[in-house]
Amino acid sequence: MRLSTLKMGLAALIAVIPALALAHPGHEHTTSFMTGFMHPMGGLDHLLAMLAIGLWAASLGGRPLWAVPAAFVGTMLIGGGLSVAGIQVPFIEQGIVLSVVLMGVLLVGAARFPVAVCAGIAALFAVFHGAAHGLEMPLNANGAEYALGFAAATALLHVVGIGFGSAIARFQAPIVTRVTGSLIAVAGLFLAIA
């Protein structure tokens, strides 16, 4: 089971590599799906938070392995819908940066809570990420395609985090998760002051 999760994570990482190359200026996205897909890839804040969610889910194991990322993706779509509908979500940028810092702290502390609490934490952070995606949707984008794109990219980043976390668990090296969490938290602090 763990080997198949590792293979899924590696496959997801390989799938993301070409997309990351498109994140550089000068490449035109020809579809709303690709524009949505590239949005989470283009910001370090989104990238770190989404990888951290997958890594945290992997460290929790069991039901949270899929419940936490699913809660994030589902609520992120709701947050995006709020922005598109013109409903203002307060403190979006602060919420995103806080999500990076706190996800890092949760990883450092090897935090374990009931499944509903873990999913609730992920969902709370997801509202801010989704609202940012919705606000930054190009005016000429097809909303459904754009949302599907950023949801797919987010799920893919979660799978990469899960794959990395599963590899760490396989080698019984929880210190790697904690060190990664500290790096994520520190990066979040730098994002806060930048």
Automatic annotation (TrEMBL):
InterPro entries: HupE_UreJ
Signal peptide (from-to): 1-23
Transmembrane segments: 39-58, 65-85, 91-108, 115-135, 147-168, 175-193
Keyword terms of this UniProt record: Membrane, Signal, Transmembrane, Transmembrane helix
Top-level taxon: Bacteria
Listed name of the protein: Protein hupE
Organism of this sequence: Marinomonas profundimaris
Lineage, opening ranks: Bacteria, Pseudomonadati, Pseudomonadota, Gammaproteobacteria, Oceanospirillales
